[in-house]
Amino acid sequence: MSAYYIHDGRNEIGPFTIDLLKKQKLTRNTPVRQTDSDKWMPAERLASLKEVVVPRKIRRPKDILPAAKEHFQHLQQRKPVLLYSLLLLLALIAGISIYSATSTEKKSSAPAKPARQNVLPPATPQPVAQPEPAPKEAATPPVAVAEDKAKTTRLRWNKLISATNSNYGIGLLGGIKDLRVIATNRTDYPIDQMVVNLTYIKAGGGVWKTVPITIHGIPAHDSKEQEVSDVGRGKKVKVSIQKIISKKMHFSYTEGKKGKDPADPYVMQ
Asked: pTM to 2 decimals?
């Protein structure tokens, strides 16, 4: 008696006799091979397995007729809507065609404008203008220019230097995770140190705690991020700058403090 192996997609199973294969519920495409062959083929292609293969499910006429009748009734109900839509589409196409023909006729009947000829007068030789000598600029000491630029930057620091927070996750019962503090420096001078106060706000709006975050070495016209450890409380965060130091800019800022010179209150002493 012949025996067969079947493949379930991962492993080879068998051997099975015809009687055992009937319990496996073979489909038409189940890979099968006989014990004396290494060739796999769909079960439906083996004549000896036709009575074992699960047959296709054929819809009977009694199942098809009610569905066809329901579909025909649905089309009859939509017939007026389809007719009106078709008439509207035909009217729209006719209108576009009439408008296009009218526009083409108007353009073809309009008299052509004569080409304008530009007659240029004969060129008259012009005297060659001698370049005027450039005025001599007063020499400005480079050190003074650098100091003025740094002073201007110090007075406008709050428009050029900022700190903010990244997007972060909030736990189901509160807590902040995946948070980063971002320091941005849009000046021409590197920032040596920035201290940022990170305030955690509870669900009711009160402050849970404030933590100082220190960021070192922020290049000119660049940003730098500082990761923050996850916490188990808080629903929101607030970021504010507490301290900035830039030796190249001669800039020293501490929240709530100013220097003695009102014209340059944040110059480094």
From this structure: 0.47
